[in-house]
Each structure stands twice: as structure tokens, then as C-alpha cells.
Specification:
Mean pLDDT: 78
Strand order of the largest sheet: 2-1-3-4
Helix content: 40-55%
Radius of gyration: 21 Å
Order of helices and strands: HHHHHHHHHEHHEHHEHEHEHHEHHEHEH
Number of strands: 8
Shape: globular
Low-confidence stretches: 157-174, 268-288, 418-428
Structural class: alpha/beta
Largest sheet: 4 strands, parallel
Length: about 425
Amino acid sequence: MQTSLDPKWEALIDLTEVDTILRSCVHCGFCTSGCPTYQLLGDENDSPRGRIYLMKQVFEGNSSFETVAPHLDRCLTCRSCETNCPSGVEYGRLLDISRGIMHQTRSRLSWSRLKATLLIKLLRQNLLMRAFFSVGRVLRRLPGLRHTAKLPLPRNHQSLNGNPAAERSKPLSRAKGLGKVIVLKGCLQRHATPRVVEALCSILNWQGYEPVFLDEEPCCGALPYHLGDHAKGAADLSALSELIRVHSGDVVAVLSSATGCATFLSGLANQGQPGSSSLEAPGPSTEKTFPPLLDPVTFLKDLPAPPVRTANIAVHEPCTQTHGTKLRGEVSSYLTQLGFNVVSSVSGQGCCGSAGTYSLLQPAISRRLRSTMLDRLESGRADVVLTANVGCQVHLDSAGRTPVVHWLEWVAQSMEGEPPQEASGSRL
């Protein structure tokens, strides 16, 4: 598309980058077929193509971000459009640039900015997060609130205090001393679904690897960055990157079972942006090199298969895994390899509506997307729905329908011979 961008934006952004992204869009419309909000709402302005045009108008000086903000805020950032785009339009990067400007220029008293700021602060406070999920657990148990509570909370949880996962996870250990693996807990996961971390450690122990943790693990920066606070996101990423670098001496890999974190860390944006493939970010540099940052399924799929109990399962592969880390179908394939019966699978076909903080900022749309996703997953009458992301797990499970757990937890409990009903997604 032809552009005529307003030079005033040069003080805030790299206008050449914006121009390149805008010009790469040919308005073919392939993106609309996979866009969850467009499919749900039917509004061109709530499609990737429409949002690109809205952003173009702003950058050309013919509109304002205050005017187009509602449509940009409704974007899930699932990046399905990037997967479908034949022209390679970096829509997600363009949206991040726009949200960064909005964060800088929006009124500090605006409701949208206040909500985003409060969410970022909440996720960074361990005591508040523990209290939040503790209260949520109580509410879920109260008569009349069990299935009507609108807060996206899991139906069962426990806090992960300190680093007990490696000590408490003792499956059929085959301690071979194959090396250490850094396991990232994640801001949300350590409080909402801590058993996922324990499960990963359990599987690693069985394979002969030693899971280790980072003291005072900081946020990876994904949530503040995607909410528009690029400075905070880059600072968080730099802190986490340096901590990994310091402790990477005898580590064979870094694993993140939260696919949103993994996507940001491994990077799908431009080279040199936060989340580059080498985990590099502005900050101190050393001669140490990083061990590979991997999704657990990538690390485990070529290792010996542990013994598991069979079960009928549905597999939900998150947007961050399908369109982010580009591991479409990998979890379903691995679970089938282990001996589970995959009766239904959703990979790259819509979004569950979690999308980081989206379920809190856009609850009405989020719940409609969740219902549609669960309808698809439950079509095969599975005993349980398995997913690969903590946000998706919490969001889907909070509907009170088929139990939703992380696939790592299900595999670990099957290995240990525990009843599947005891998983964190079981009904209370």
C-alpha cells in the first residue's frame, strides 16, 4: 500500500520501520479468515487489515490513536494473521509500536491505562498474587458462586513457596546426571498453577536431568511490553537475561512451560527487539553464551518416552505456541507418541480469549471466545482438556466445564500413577 507518513512521529519511533510494514500489506484479506475478533464481531475495523488501515490513518495524520484505540485494544495479539499472511506483514510489531505510542501519549487518568498499570503491578507482587488466588479459591467453593464467578480463576491451586518442586517431584528417577536445566516459573504460573512447574521437574528427574531455579526470578517483560510499556518490558527482559547468563555455566537448556513467556523470550519480532532469538537485551554483556531456550515439548520429544496411563484427551495448542514459537501440532504429536488417545485437537483455529491480560480487559469478548473454543474441544467427549499455557489453562478451566490442565501435569501424574482427577484442573 502507498503511504505518506507524518514526520512528527519520527521523534517517537522509527518511522522507516512503520513505513516498511505498512507498505508490505496488499489488502488481500487472508488475515481476516483467521482473526478471532473479526469472525466474532464481523467488523472490518476489528480485523488485522482494518486495524492496519486505522494505524495508517493515524501515522499519516488523518486520525488519532484516541479514536482508533477501542479497535486496537480489542486485538488479541494472537498473530494468527501473521501465519495466514502471504506477504509476511509484521502486524504484531506494528501493533506493539502503536501501543507503545498510546502508552506514552494517553492520559495517565484514562481508565484503560489505569487498568493496565494495576495489572502489571499486581503480577509483580508475590504476596498480592498469592492472596488473589487464595480468595478466588474460596469464592469457587461457595454455593452459588462456583460456576458463576466471572473472575478467570482456576478451580484448584496451591502456592509454590521457594523452590520445592525438584524436591517434591520424585517419580521413577533414573538419575543419570545428564546436566542441569533452568526451569522458569513465570509470574502467573508460580501462583495460579504451580503444579505445572513441579510436573516439569518430575519429568526432567525421570529423564536424568537436574531442574534448577533462578533466585528471585524477575518478570520476562512480556505483559508490560505488550500493554505498551516498552521501557518496563525491555528492563525486565534485560534483568532476566542477565540472571540466566550468570547461571548458565553448566546448564544444557532453559525451559519455559508458559508459552507466552517463551514466545517473548525467543522472539518473533524484529532482530534486536526484546525477545531476540539469543535472549539478548540492552544491558551488561559477558563472554558467556546462552544455553538454548526451548519449549518443554521440543526438549522432551526425542528423549525416551516415560510410561503413562492411557486416557481420552483433547488438546488445545495456544496461539503463542502455534503462531508464536511455531510448534503447531507438536504437543498433540508427542502426547500421541506417549500413548494417549487424542480425540480432538485445536491448533491455530481461533483463540480461547485469554491472551495475557485480555480476559480481564475485554471480559465480554473473552468469554464468548472461550465458549466457542470449549465447544470445539469438547466435541470428541474427552476426559480432560490439555493445554500448554497457564493463561489459557486458567481461563478455560474457569468456565467450570471439562477439566483443563497443563499437558506436563497430566503426563507427570500419569507417570506417577496418580488418579487424573487429582490434577489442578479437576472439579472441586
